[in-house]
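Slack export, channel: ligand-projects

TW: morning all. Re-posting the request from yesterday since it got buried. We need the structure predicted with the small molecule present, not the apo form. The ligand is zinc ion; the SMILES is in the block with the sequence. No rush, but it would help planning for next week.
GE: picking it up
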Amino acid sequence: MLTFKLIYSDGYFLPIGAHVFPAEKYKRIHDQLLAYEIAAPSDFLVPHLATDQDVLLVHTPQYVEKLKTGALSPREEMELEVPYSPELVRAFWLAAGGSILAADHALNDGVAFNIGGGFHHAFPDHGEGFCVINDVAIAIRRMQRDGRIRTAMTVDCDVHQGNGTAAIFSGARSPGDPLPSASSSRLKTTPESKTGGAHAGDVFTISLHQENNYPAWKPPSSIDVNLPDGIGDDDYLAWLDNALSSGLRQFDPELLCYIAGADPYREDQLGGLSLTIDGLKRRDELVFRVARARGIPAMVTYAGGYARNVEDTVAIHCNTVIAAKEIFAGKA
Ligand SMILES: [Zn+2]
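GE: finished. pasting the full token output, ligand included:
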């Protein structure tokens, strides 16, 4: 039995037909965690649907209305890159409910997982890139509304930049700050983010991503680390370490939302970085070690993962639970 909770429902399955997004991954992760005895049935909690009021903490009434009545324009539906259906909307409301529940349990237990979620490309007024609503942002705003937290930090390690999250929490960056960037010859140097002024927003956003990838327009996060193509484990981990140190020098979060995308993997079909499965587990360990050392509760969501073999995506996501188990049990 784990010391933390895993939030999961069979309703996380996305009814999108044959698609590069492996909609069945959530159930496979759930089943594998049990089969390998990484978790026990009693470690899992079933989420409720987020309420419309929860969703409206982040999204515009117009967009929510369109989703609930099937009134998206063809262009809006095309931008989602997944086929619209009422069942699809329900799956996303459920994922948001799962992230709310995971945030709630993280604040009690130090860490908690949504075995789903991480839909970081959803903006207040539209969805895109397989993301209909932004479950992580909804969970943060709900915890704030309930008076559970004042501040939060997102640590987005999906290979794609967290454009929706960045836009939702924009204003969280002092303009003109020099930011870590791995896109230049400074790759091997230590980036320093020298902030002059106070942090403006209540949510600090960090995104480590491949620069030469979707989304083309990357609204600024508090810290964006634009990684070059093909970067491997050691360089990636050094940049992550730098970004976390820099972010936590500038900002004191009461909740850390880790968006643990599996798509920086070298075999990913939609990613161009070269991390190994072992490197991705070391990435998870680094995030958890930092959160634990500073006493910051960590809420985990899964975001993308498009490995040629879906087994690899499932293994990477299961490893994130193993990493939390090891770090929060104090073994590492
Ligand atoms: Zn991604």
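GE: first-pass observations. The pocket of zinc ion is lined by residues 158-160, 261, 263, 303-304 (CB under 6 Å). Strands lie at 5-7, 44-45, 111-114, 152-156, 203-210, 223-227, 256-259, 298-301.
TW: perfect, thank you
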